[in-house]
Amino acid sequence: MSIIPDTAGFQPDGDASWADPATGDRMSVQFFDLVPNLPAGLDDVPRLRYELAVQTADFGGLVEAFVVSLDGSPALLQVVKVPLPDRPGQAFIASVTVPKATASAVVQLLLIEGPTTGVREAMVLSDVISETGNPDAFYAPHPYAPQTQPKLPWHRADDPRFDERLPDHPLSRARRWLRHVLATAQLAPEFAALPPFGSPVSVSIGLPIGPFLPLWTVNETMTFWRLPDPGAVRAQLGHGATDRRPVTQSESCEAAWLDPAEGVLTLSPNLPPVRVTPVSDETAYTSITSEDIVAAFDWIGELSVAAGERAEMLLVRTAATADGADKFVLMCLQVHDGDRANPTCVVETSPVPVGAQFWDTLPPLPTPDKAGFARTRDADHARVDGRLTMWAVQTWDLHPYRLMLSYKPNPDLR
Predict the structure, then answer these.
(1) How many distinct structural domains can be found in the chain?
(2) Nearest-CA neighbor of 390 among 367, 414, 339, 356?
(3) How many other C-beta atoms lie within 10 A of the C-beta of residue 380?
(4) Do residues 131 and 227 both lie within one domain?
(5) Are residues 224 and 281 in the same domain?
(6) 292 with 375, same domain?
(7) Domain range for residue 24?
(8) Smallest Cα–Cα separation from 43: which of 80, 74, 78, 79?
(9) Torsions phi, psi of 14, nearest 5?
(10) Which of 253, 350, 244, 234 has its CA nearest to residue 298?
(11) In 327-400, where does DSSP find H-type helix?
(12) What is the distance between the alpha carbons of residues 132 and 114, in angstroms, rounded to a whole number?
C-alpha cells in the first residue's frame, strides 16, 4: 500500500479497506497512478480552498481544507459533507491526499449519520438564537468561496468548537480520526521516494491525436493532456527543435519537462512553453474520431519528409515494452549509386502486416519477419508514408495512443 494507516479498532473489509464495528465508519486507501488533478498547488492555499469549494458545491459542501504533512510529505486534508441518497441525513468524507509529481495516494474515512439526524445543527441553532435572536445567523457565506451556493451550505455547526460537546457526531469523529492519521500513518518507501508534486517531470512525447497529447514517464506510465492549440504544438514536434531522450544506443525520442501542478509543458528551452490540462483516459479515448486518427498518420507522413531533410530515419514504435518491443515502422530515404538528388523512399515494418491494406499485395522480403516498400520520391511522399504506416499499425491490435515516434541517423545521407 502507498499509505499505511493504523488499523487498530478496525476490521478488514475488502482490499485496502477496513470498517469500525462500533460506528460503521469505513476507512480505505487508494493509489492513483496518474498526475494529480488538484485545482492548484499546495503552496497556494487560498486558491486551492476556493477551487475545492466551487468543485464540491454541486453535490455537497466543503467543510474545511488544510495543507498538512503526512509522514514528512506535503498533503491535502479535506472534510466534505454530502446528502444521503436514500434518507434524510448527511455523510462526511474525511481524507488526506498525498500528491506526487505523477501519482497520488489517498487515505479516507466515510462516516454516515445514524437514524437520528440534525442533532448537532439543532444544538448550535439554539445557541445562535440565544446569542443573536436571529435564526438566520446560523448560516454564513462559505469561508473559502463566499459567492458559492453549495448544495449543503456552510453553517456554524460545522465549526470545530462544537466537537467536544458532541464527540460521537460523525464530523467530530472525522476530525479526531484525521488527527490520528496525521500522527500515525506512514508512507510506503517506494511511494515516498517519488518526485514531489509540483516538481517538473521528464516525459517522452506520445502520438498527438485530436486535441490530446499522451505523455510517458520513465516508468512507462501514460497520462493524457488537452492542448489548447493542437496545430501549434504539432508544428513544434518532429522538426529537430525539441529535447530528446535515448531509446537505444542510436535511437532517440522527443522529450519534454512537464510541470503537472502548473500545467506547463516545456519542449525545449528555445521553444515557448505549452499550456496543458490533464484529462482522464476515458475522455482521451472516447473523444477522438477516426478522422482524427487518419489526420495523425498523415502528420506522421509529413514528419517522415522532414526527417529525411535532416538526414534522419523516422520510426513509429510501441511506447511501452509491455506492448511488444519488436513492433515498428521505419521510414527513410535511400541513396543508390551516389545519386543524392533522387533518393528512394523506403517504408519497412515488422511484424509482417498480414491482412493490411496494400501491404498484402507486396512480394515477401528475404527476411520473413519484415515487410517493405520502396519507390521513387515524389510529391506524394508524405501521404504515402503516413497511410502505409497507418495500415501496418492497424494490424498490431494497439490503440495509436500506445505509439511513439523516434529518430536515428540515416547513414545513407551522412
Answers:
(1) 2
(2) 356
(3) 12
(4) no
(5) yes
(6) yes
(7) 3-192
(8) 74
(9) 115, -175
(10) 234
(11) 381-393
(12) 30
With a threshold of 0.70, does the pTM exceed it? Answer: no
* CATH number of the domain residue 98 falls in: 3.40.1000
- Same-domain check for residues 369 and 387: yes
Confidence of residue 55 (pLDDT cuts 50, 70, 90): very high
Q: What is the pLDDT of residues 329-384, one digit of tens each?
A: 999 999 887 888 889 999 999 999 999 999 999 998 888 899 999 998 888 889 99
The beta strands (E) that lie in 5-60 are given as: 11-12, 17-19, 26-32
- What is the C-alpha separation between 26 and 11, in angstroms, rounded? 9
Q: In terms of domains, do 186 and 335 share one?
A: no
Q: Is 278 helix (H, G, I), strand (E, B) or coil?
A: strand
HEC readout, 76-130: EEEEEEEECCCCCCEEEEEEEEEEECCCEEEEEEEEECCCCCCHHHHHHHHHHHH
> Residue 43 is placed in which grid cell?
503552496
Q: Are residues 262 and 333 in the same domain?
A: yes
Tell me the pLDDT tens digit for each residue of 241-296.
999 999 888 999 999 999 887 889 999 999 999 999 989 899 999 999 999 999 99
Using a 10 angstrom Cβ sphere, with 0-12 exposed, 13-18 middle and 19 or more buried, the burial of residue 170 is: buried
The H or E element containing residue 46 is helix 45-56
- Positive or negative: CA dihedral 51, 52, 53, 55: positive
Question: Which pLDDT tens digit goes with each residue over 135-149?
Answer: 888 998 999 999 999
User: How long is the chain?
Assistant: 414
Peptide bond into 170 cis (omega under 30): no
Nine-digit cell string for 23? 460506528
Q: Which of 131, 166, 192 is the last residue of a domain?
A: 192
Where among 192, 216, 237 does a domain terminate?
192
Q: What is the amino acid identity at position 125?
A: L
b/e sequence 7-28, b meaning 16+ C-beta within 10 Å: eeebeeeeebebbbeeeebbbb
Q: In a 3-state reduction of DSSP, which class is residue 273? A: coil
Is 346 in the same domain as 377? yes
Whether 385 and 314 share a structural domain = yes
The C-alpha cell that represents 63 in the structure block: 467543510
